[in-house]
Amino acid sequence: MPTANHSGTSHTVFHLLGIPCLEDQHMWISIPFFISYVTALPGNSLLIFIILTKRSLREPMYLFLCMLAGADIVLSTCTIPQALAIFWFHAGDISLDRCITQLFIIHSTFISESGILLVMAFDRYIAICYPLRYTTVLTNALIKKICMTVSLRSYGTIFSIIFLLKRLTFCQNNIIPHTFCEHIGLAKYALILDVMLIFISYTLILRTVFHIPSQDARHKALNTCGSHVCVIILFYGPGIFSVLTQRFGHHISPHIHVLLANICILVPPMLNPIIYGIKTKHIWDQVTHVLFPKVK
To answer: Pfam family of this protein, just one (predicted)?
Structure first.
């Protein structure tokens, strides 16, 4: 967002540049954006449909995955169509209210996804370390409270910042060298504590797994965590790297910072349903049944 002062009239319309210094390559850059969106939208929608309609997938792990898929749809839809409009039609103008709304949706959804990944780590911890108590710990009442807590944390964290941002004036310039309105500093809210807790969860999980005497049982336990670990790396990896480059990479070209921020938006929503579809047998069986009903 532009730097604010109080010496003139505040801008009410801003102009998004897309990828700065690469304007002549926008048409080529739009291809991965388009592929990401046409993969993420049907992929996550199919995942939600299967989980909500198949009684065999009513376990907490799949309900949390359904929440993650919903957040991915919101994140993709809030950002990628606008980026494509900039790349294809040079439609970069955005009002201040719309810009602040987009910033709120992006970062509240980002924090929600981080919270969901943390909850999924807790789910795997209970399933592996206390398997006999799994159904008594993760009751429907607790799941509802978890969902409400994740939502309240994400919206509550960002709302106060957005409220203060709304009161500022923006007078220096109205050019935003990006494809969407964002503030990378807000991502720190979702990174530090959640990453630490997820790390602790998997440390306890690994300690339990390596004490299992049966090799087949160890392999099965680790396999149940494989999809989640891949999604964690896809989500936090680019985000942490983007934060670090913003903090320490002052010599890095601006378009690199923008590309990294877009990777955080493009990659997880596109690959999450693919990872869970391939690595989770129950989901894969249901996907093949829905897409190829006549194949036995």
So the answer is: 7tm_4
Residue 70: which residues within 8 A CB-CB, separation 6 or more? 44, 48
Residue 256 lies in a domain: yes
Beta bridge partners of 93: 15
The model's confidence at residue 247, banded by pLDDT at 50, 70 and 90, is confident
Of 101-110, 142-151, 277-286, which gets the smallest average pLDDT? 277-286
pLDDT at 291 over 50: yes
Bridge-partner residues for 94, per DSSP? 14
- Number of domains present in the structure of the chain: 1
Pinpoint the alpha helices (H) of the chain. 26-53, 60-89, 96-129, 134-137, 140-166, 188-209, 215-248, 254-279, 281-291
What is the rounded CA–CA span in Å between residue 25 and residue 16? 16
pLDDT at 214 > cutoff 80: yes
Domain that includes residue 95, residue range: 13-291
What pLDDT, on the 0 to 100 scale, is given for residue 53?
92
CA dist 248 and 238 (Å) reads 15
Q: Is the pLDDT of residue 51 over 90?
A: yes
Report the distance separating Cα 2 and Cα 64, nearest Å: 37
Q: Is residue 7 part of a domain?
A: no
CATH of the domain at 285: 1.20.1070.10
Q: Do residues 71 and 53 touch, judged by C-beta distance below 8 A?
A: no
The Cα–Cα gap between 14 and 1 comes to: 9
User: Three-class SS of residue 296?
Assistant: coil
Q: What are phi and psi of 13, to 5 degrees?
A: -130, 135
Which positions ≥6 away from 199 have C-beta within 8 Å? Answer: none
Measuring CA to CA, which residue among 90, 37, 22, 44 is closest to residue 277? 44
- How many residues are present in the chain? 296
Q: Answer whether residue 212 shows pLDDT above 60.
A: yes
Task: Give domain status of residue 8, yes or no.
Answer: no
